[in-house]
Amino acid sequence: MSVALRKRTLVCLALAGAGLLASSMLQASPTYRWVDDDGVVHYGDRIPPEYADQRSDVLNRHGVAVGSREGLRSAEAREAEAREAEARAERNATQRRDRVLLDTYLDVDEIRMLRDRRLDMLQAQLDVAASTLERLYQQLHSLEMIAAEYRPYNDDPEAERIPEDLARDLASVQSSVLDYERTLDQGREEQLRLVERFEADILRFEELQAERQRRRE
């Protein structure tokens, strides 16, 4: 092969390689598709800054969407979206509660009757707990009187140490007293919450009934 032919061959190979490299680089550069404010679809390898905060599609070399690019939303925009989602969820929950109220009760008297039944049942449970707690107080007092004769409840250095069975009984009753005291406290708090929930239901039911009446008129 002559020197001139060899040079031409090398030049052709170099040009072909450069072409393949350029083609590869072009294929590696993604193409984006986005929609402007007027609804016109645009294509390009860069998204204009004014559309950077909105979603766009990523296309392959055949023009087929192979992915998407989320907009570069600001922290304020994300917070606004989160607040809107929370408000929407709260509106949906309110609508569900409203439907339940209207589907469950015919009038306010039915709501009050159910409230009173729930309160009576809860009060009956509290009465039993209070009666049991009173007996535990008496039992605890008796055990404390006996334990007062022993160390560590008696400061007399000659006093005997409290027997193990008495110490166990005393600790068991003390624990039961604390449990029933908590039960009574929780029950009284539940009574207050129950009254508040039903009062809120009554007020909302009356509002819904009034709205329904206005629509009929």
The major β-sheet equals: 4 strands, antiparallel
In whole angstroms, the N-to-C terminal distance is 104 Å
Q: Residue-averaged pLDDT, rounded? A: 83
Low-confidence stretches: 13-27
- Choose one word for the global shape: elongated
Radius of gyration in whole Å, from Cα? 40 Å
Count of spatially separate domains:
3
Helix content: 55-70%
Number of helical regions: 4
Helix/strand order, N-terminal first: HEEEEHHH
Q: What is the number of E strands?
A: 4
| Range of strand content | 5-15%
Q: Could you give the order of strands across the largest sheet?
A: 2-1-3-4
Counting helices, strands and paired strands, the structural category is: alpha+beta
Topology:
Layout: H1 3-28, E1 31-35, E2 41-44, E3 56-59, E4 65-69, H2 75-104, H3 108-147, H4 164-216
Antiparallel strand pairs: 1-2, 1-3, 3-4
Helix pairs in contact: 3-4
Briefly say what this structure is:
The chain has 217 residues and is α+β, with helices and mostly antiparallel strands. It has four helices and four strands; from the N terminus they run H-E-E-E-E-H-H-H. The chain is 69% helix and 8% strand.
